[in-house]
Amino acid sequence: MPFSGISARKSWMAPLPTSSGGYGEEKPMRGRTSGRGLCGANAGVYGAVVITSLVWLVLLHVTGVRDWAILCGRGEVAGVDVSGKVGSESGGYGLSYIASSQDDGVGSGLVELMDGEGKRSEAVRPKVLAFVGINTGFDSGPRRASLRETWFPSTPEGLNKLEESTGLVFRFVIGHTDDARKMKALDEEVQEHKDFLLLDVDEQYSKLTLKTLAFFRTAYSLYDADFYMKIDDDIYLRPDRLATLLSKPRESPMVYLGCMKKGPVITEPKFKWYEPQAYMLGSEYFLHAYGPIYALSKEVVANLAANKNQRYRKFINEDVTIGAWMLGMDVVYEDNRAICANECGPTSVAVWDLPKCSGLCNPTKRMLELHKDEMCSKSP
């Protein structure tokens, strides 16, 4: 889906705040906005946000001092926070945009953006080396805290500095929940750190594949990146080395980068990784990347973003599903063990306890231990 947005930033300068992707039933956006003068006062406008099943247009300063939302179809202007609460005292996120679902109900749908005068405007997506989405959930606050104490910046200013130096945009990626308490806690965390990408998808493990697809589409709509990478929030990462890895020359524009594996198809329902569609797969899975960390090149993600009428088969496991889609795209499989190292070394890019755990075992403790090791945090 084509992107229309406003960007006053130079290449490699990623906006600090967060945004939202659409997921859900397609809703036509109608109506005109009232209160145009009120919204027009926000000259640094970047877009709008979808909150649960409603489509909101959020107009705000680059500094994120104030959000103003236009409820499409009713022409009302009000503040809106991440929990969906409407009111004049809602906080700002900085960057946001219009997000609507695609025809299949999954996607970013960054379709159009409003300028400071309330008019539709065309703009160019910021060019970056990669958009790195850190998959997280509502019960993962301690993990995010550990990340912010180690390799992930704890302030918006630090995040911006990292993004400028590496060309990598980092955001925690999360959906929504009906639990008002958890949404309130998320709202407070968003306001403090401004390092989230908010997707309009139910945050539950059974919908991880849909969340991942919505992430890729949303990130593609926001940024013109060479790569789009998904990692879990229990991975120790060296952003500088990741930038070096992703920036190296490649012969093909269609790249699937990860730690590749095969393995037996689980046919017994009592086991965790049971595959209900095992009868289609035989006894062994096809080659695919481990789910905790992998990257897709721009051309690959463009195919996912362009397919409005999604008809790809979905398996129970997200990593298998992505691998199945890659089979049909004639991608180059790049198996790189530097992103699944068991310990820090001179070439390790990402460290986690494969195959014992699908990430770091006891991540809140291990993350801090690794960061104290100079081989992890300070070596070239």
Quick structural overview:
The protein has 380 residues and is α/β, with parallel strands linked by helices. The protein is 25% helix and 22% strand. The protein has an eight-stranded mixed sheet with strand order 1-10-9-8-11-14-13-15, sandwiched between helices. It has a four-stranded antiparallel sheet with strand order 2-3-4-5, with no helix packed on it.
How would you portray this structure in words?
With 380 residues, the chain is of the alpha/beta class. It has ten helices and 16 strands. It has helices spanning 36-40, 141-148, 156-166, 180-193, 208-222, 239-247, 298-306, 318-327, 363-372, 374-377; strands at residues 19-21, 50-51, 54-60, 67-71, 76-78, 113-114, 120-121, 127-135, 168-176, 196-202, 224-232, 236-237, 255-261, 288-297, 332-335, 350-351. Strands 1-10-9-8-11-14-13-15 form an eight-stranded mixed sheet, sandwiched between helices. Strands 2-3-4-5 form a four-stranded antiparallel sheet, with no helix packed on it. Strands 6-7 form a two-stranded antiparallel sheet. Strand 6 and strand 7 (120-121) form a beta hairpin. Helix 2 packs parallel to helix 9 (363-372) and helix 5 (208-222) crosses helix 7. The longest helix is centred in the middle third of the chain and has 15 residues, at 208-222. It is globular, with a radius of gyration of 20 Å. It starts with 18 loop residues before the first strand and ends with a helix.
